[in-house]
Amino acid sequence: MAQRPVWMDEDLDAFRDLARTFCAKELTPNIERWIENKQVDRELWRKAGEVGLLCLSIPEEYGGGGGTFAHEVVLLEEQARAGDSGWGVSLHNGIVAHYVLAYGTEEQKHAWLPKLASGEWVGAIAMTEPGAGSDLQAIKTRAVRDGDEYVVTGTKTFITNGGQCDFVVVVAKTDPTKGAEGTSLVIVEADRPGFRHGRVLDKIGQKSQDTAELFFDDVRVPATNLLGTAEGQGFIQLMNQLPQERLIIGVSSVVAMELALAETLRYTKERQAFGRPVYHFQNTKFTLAEVATETHIARLFLDDCVAKHLRGELDIPTVAMLKWWTSDRAMKAIDECLQLHGGYGYMTEYPIARIYTDQRVQRIYGGTNEIMKEIISRSL
Ligand SMILES: Cc1cc2nc3c(=O)[nH]c(=O)nc-3n(C[C@H](O)[C@H](O)[C@H](O)COP(=O)(O)OP(=O)(O)OC[C@H]3O[C@@H](n4cnc5c(N)ncnc54)[C@H](O)[C@@H]3O)c2cc1C
């Protein structure tokens, strides 16, 4: 029933084989250990860099793969199908590197992107603070100009790749009197004195993802670490990049629905109750018919958004619709699928339990679903 996405082509088929092989070899066998360690192996990034899986959609002249956003989607799909939710590659590839590509000067792009593409550096983006998430204008982190340097001070939290990151795009106030126009993006490399990785946080899902706090204690960076050429561009830069981040969340949500459906079909056709497979109860069939329908609709909506994004036509309200709707529907569908597993659905060794806990955050990060509805309503 699933149809081939309109944006797939032969080049992407070949790339999917490469991504699938890598994920089966390098991710699946290590997942339990990574969950225990609360992080993937740092070496994974190097290995991925060597086979060309980092910075897939960054031009080759900056060390990237020269592909498109479709390559990022394929990698994300294969990562999820391999059962991993810890490797923060979609953020590194699809978000952090793209801030540099979109706003960096030629010098910045040549200096930073090759290191992100080789896996020498792991990237992170630090917007959220203990006292400011949805209300980003309330951030307190400061980047104060002092001669040829900025002095960065503040605390960030919930930062994906926060435990391992070497390169952080920091959202900071360069002029606190100006609100949104006083906000800038400043790069902080992790080896600068005064920078500290905080503890890796305990989460209900995505347990092998090293989500962490970051501390900036009078960290001095050269003034050339300001992303772009002028202060005060931070909010516009964020506005323009957040759609791709939300599209990535749409991809993860739809793949999670597809996986949950496949797992539940397999399980209910095997599991016996009252002398017949659980699948044969009308409730099971109707529930899965509904889940299959919503999954199909979600996939079509997603593929339409991916195709539009590849043409440069995806607008902010539409991707906000995709983000809230797919993450919300996925959560409902996965909950129904978990129910059909009975008590086994509550056991973390069953894939459906992991899909359930991993999915929950998709309604929260990348801008909460409530904020997505605010954005949509402004366009109506
Ligand atoms: C696992 C994980 C990874 C993350 N990764 C990153 C990362 O890499 N980088 C980063 O910067 N951040 C990251 N975040 C942070 C994430 O983006 C924020 O948690 C999110 O934006 C919400 O902010 P908050 O937690 O401060 O919640 P709040 O903003 O305090 O929201 C609390 C509740 O109030 C609601 N609310 C707030 N404002 C409104 C409004 N105007 N109208 C209606 N309801 C509203 C929210 O929707 C929510 O339900 C991550 C979070 C998690 C959990």
Question: Main attributes?
Answer:
single chain; 380 residues; alpha+beta; Butyryl-Coa Dehydrogenase, subunit A, domain 1; Butyryl-CoA Dehydrogenase, subunit A, domain 2; Butyryl-CoA Dehydrogenase, subunit A, domain 3; 3 domains; four-stranded antiparallel sheet; three-stranded mixed sheet; globular; binds flavin-adenine dinucleotide
Map the helices and strands.
Layout: H1 10-26, H2 31-37, H3 42-50, H4 69-81, H5 89-103, H6 106-118, E1 123-126, E2 142-146, E3 149-159, E4 167-173, E5 183-189, E6 195-200, E7 212-222, H7 234-270, E8 272-273, E9 276-277, H8 282-310, H9 316-339, H10 351-359, H11 369-378
Parallel strand pairs: 1-4
Antiparallel strand pairs: 2-3, 3-7, 4-5, 6-7, 8-9
Helix pairs in contact: 1-4, 4-5, 4-7, 5-6, 5-7, 7-8, 7-9, 7-10, 8-9, 9-10, 9-11
Bound molecules: flavin-adenine dinucleotide.
The site of flavin-adenine dinucleotide (FAD) has 20 residues, from strand 1, strand 3 and helix 11.
Pfam family, one: Acyl-CoA_dh_N
Family: Belongs to the acyl-CoA dehydrogenase family.
GO molecular function, one term: flavin adenine dinucleotide binding
Could you characterize the architecture of this molecule?
The chain has helices at 10-26, 31-37, 42-50, 69-81, 89-103, 106-118, 234-270, 282-310, 316-339, 351-359, 369-378, and strands spanning 123-126, 142-146, 149-159, 167-173, 183-189, 195-200, 212-222, 272-273, 276-277. It is globular and about 80 Å long. It is α+β, with helices and mostly antiparallel strands. The strands form three sheets. It has a four-stranded antiparallel β-sheet, with no helix packed on it. Strands 1-4-5 form a three-stranded mixed β-sheet, covered by helices on one side. Helix 1 packs parallel to helix 4, helix 7 packs parallel to helix 9 and helix 7 packs antiparallel against helix 10. Flavin-adenine dinucleotide binds next to strand 1, strand 3 and helix 11. Residues 124-219 form the Acyl-CoA oxidase/dehydrogenase middle domain. This is Acyl-CoA dehydrogenase.
